[in-house]
Amino acid sequence: MFKKVSISSLGLPRSKSLNETSSSSKKHSTAKSYGAPLSLDRFLTNEGHRIVASFQRVKQTQGHVQRGHFHKVTEKDFDDLLKSCKGTATRAFETLNYEYLNLSHHECKFLAKLLKSDVIVKTLKLSRNHLAGTPLKTLLKALRKNTNVKVLDLSYNLITDTEAKWLGKLLKKNKTIKELYVSFNRIGSDGAKHLSKALEENTTIERLSLESNRLDVQGGCYIASMLKVNNTIKHIHLGSNNLQLAGIKEISNALKVNSSLVSLSLDVNNLASEGAKSVSEALKTNKTLTHLYLPRNNIGDQGLKYLSKALLSNTTMTYLDLEYNNINKDGSIEGIESMGKLLESHVVPRALNLTNNNVGNEGCVALFSGIHKNKTLESIILSHCNIGLDGTRAISKALKDNDGLQNLSLHRNSEMGVDGHLELAQALEKNTSLKGIQLDYNFTEWETIGNSIHQSLTRNHFLQREKYNVACRIEIAARIMLNVSVKQQLPPFPGNSGPILLMHSTPDSPRKKLEFTRLPFEIQEQILFAIDSNHVLTNLQLITIIKWAMKRSTLGKNMKEFLTETLSTYYPLTNDVRLWPTEATDVGGSAMERF
To answer: Where does the record place the region Disordered (predicted)?
Structure first.
């Protein structure tokens, strides 16, 4: 019925048998498995295959660019990548980290073309690339018209005054870059002049790091002149620039008129006591600076006295870093005593770093003598300060009465011994505020004492959270029950002379009425007190919260303002006990993480 047709009559090649196929694959499997991957181009038979192959090439090129492997990319592949991104505002390269790549001029041309394209790059890290001369000039020219890059890191390159001049031209043109890091380069006073002139016109740079360059006195003067004009920069790092006393005086004068700077780093500039005096004079009038870093400046006890006295007139300083400053070097505790008096009677600073100063036992007694009165100090770092048992006892005594300190570092004070750690553990059984403490457990009984301290800190963390939650619940209830402004917003009902609190109602039943406002105030007060079932708040705090709720002026305030004004202090609930990180606790961080 059916005509038998042979395979060969159809004009098709005969296929191999199963046995032939398997034996053939065995012969060539070893050779092919380790060879270069076959190109798909010669197998393309239709448009779909071509699209797939093109997509694969673009993705491969994208991966090479992301890693900075421009040597693996051809001009055609790179152009195809940019063409695929045209008009799409792709975020494939939002952050490019090209550290340690030693980019060549040819590779910088690729990167420059990328920066001119529609591809979005917001963070560009080019540190440690030995960039200078023509390669850097090529990149800076490309950035003049770029509207995406917000963070530019050029630290640890070979940037000199010549490149700083090109960088100044960029800052005059570019209106997008907010953070610029050029630390650990070779920028001198002429380079500082070009940068300063550009920053007098620039209105976008908020963070500037010039750490470890060669600015010297004249460069410091140029920067100071810029700070008198610029009102955009909030954070500036001028550490290790040999600014000397003359440069520091000019910068201090600039601080008296500057109204934008929040963070200033002047570490390793040999301020000495006279430099500290100049900075102190500026702090009496400056109202915006919150973070001041002065490590390794040899300010001594006299410098600390100047700062402590000046801060009595300051209410904005948050963090003061005085690490390695030869304080109490000769056994004198005058500087520490002045800081102790400041902490006893004033609201600043909120965090203090005295690491690697010879505070000693007498210094601890002077520093902590009045801390039980302080409600605002959050963190104090006393690592490597030669503190022994007597100093630890002074700290422990203060902790029993203090209810504000959140973090305490006593790292590398080996003379504390077992008894010192035990004193702290016993003090923390009474202290209810401390949430973090750094210690060295290098003795046999460390486990028992360590567990006791850990339990106390954990208890304090949860207790603080409960205080805040209870305070907020009482405030809400008090607003409803007592606040006249809230009462006036409740709809009046016939037969009722005063406003009432509405409850849930149904169509079948009338609305229920709870006339809280007609109860005697003493009963209302007891109802609100009952919300604090675990008695985590004092009677004074409860009364303060109720009075707050009754004031019309407090409506619209946020939680931070509420808790600060009713509980005296507010500390953000965070798992990071290092509320104010410093160089001492961030060893190994990049230039971008310094401040």
So the answer is: 13-33
